[in-house]
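Narrative summary of target 7.
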Amino acid sequence: MAVVRILVDGYSLLHEWTEIARGLPRFSAQAREELVQKMTLYQDAVNIPITIVFDGAGAYTTLAHAEIKTDVEILYSRTGLTADAIIERVAHRMKPYGEVLAVTDDHAERDTVVSLGGISTSCLGFIQEVENTLADLGQTMKQINEREKRSYRNRKP
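Modeled conformation, tokenized:
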């Protein structure tokens, strides 16, 4: 079965992905925004919808964040709910449509998603996948651009 959505525990991924927002607090608006930008690039490359879930009742939203134009879905848990609970609910509701991929370092959460018919990966494994995919895409684009440059130079006026 195909993966129909990637569900990301936002703070779990930010905690592991230290290259994002280097030197800034992991819970800062800038770190969240950089993660959203990276996930937007990845979503464009793999064409699988991504939902990033942050703990926090929406208290961390900022004007800058609201201005980001992205197809990546961004959710904040409300008071009394965790990102884990939202990920579990979405995994359960998406089951008829295909598998969801949960990205988290919480082993209990990963086991729960698997029991609901989804698949899971650690944050480090996902980071490596994202970086490899984006590097491959960059290399492919470079090759296409070089080919187009040669083609353009070889054209006769």
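Helices lie at 10-16, 29-46, 63-67, 83-94, 107-115, 123-154.
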